[in-house]
Design a protein that fits this description.
globular; about 150 residues; Ubiquitin-like (UB roll); 2 domains; 5-stranded mixed beta sheet; binds FE2/S2 (inorganic) cluster; alpha+beta; about 15% strand; 5 helices; DNA polymerase, domain 1; about 30% helix
Length: about 150
Amino acid sequence: MRVRCKVNGADRTADDVWEGESLLYMLRERLGLPGSKNACEQGECGSCTVYLDGTPVCSCLVAAGQAAGREVVTVEGLSSGDGLSAVQEAFLQAGAVQCGFCTPGLVVAVHDLLERSPEPSDPQIREALAGNLCRCTGYEKIMEAVRLAARGER
Ligand code: FES
Ligand code: FES
């Protein structure tokens, strides 16, 4: 089937999408957007998090067909122009990126958190990121990145 949707502000069309195909697969393999990562494909790790009509979702759990006519924003769409977004920059500055597999999903989740709560407490940060697993950093650097992004100009 053919799926038409808006991705990162542009009208996109994916052809030959099969019924069981995930939005994550469509984004990565058909639309050339490999930022969202496939780590578990079971909704457990959050590495595939994207916005769907403004709400963060695990794109591995969303059928590609469900995105038809809707708006998707991936980690690639969060930065303005060629520069990094404030959240992306904060992850770099805090050293919160190691293997980087969890990072795109975390960046989307943090972006969403700061939209809702510009000055989150540590418990709010932990709760907001509870669905995003990281095997490398021990989370403290991620916490620091969020605090940094919250303090900085966004
Ligand atoms: S790949 Fe989607 S939640 Fe892990
Ligand atoms: S940096 Fe490796 S999983 Fe988070």
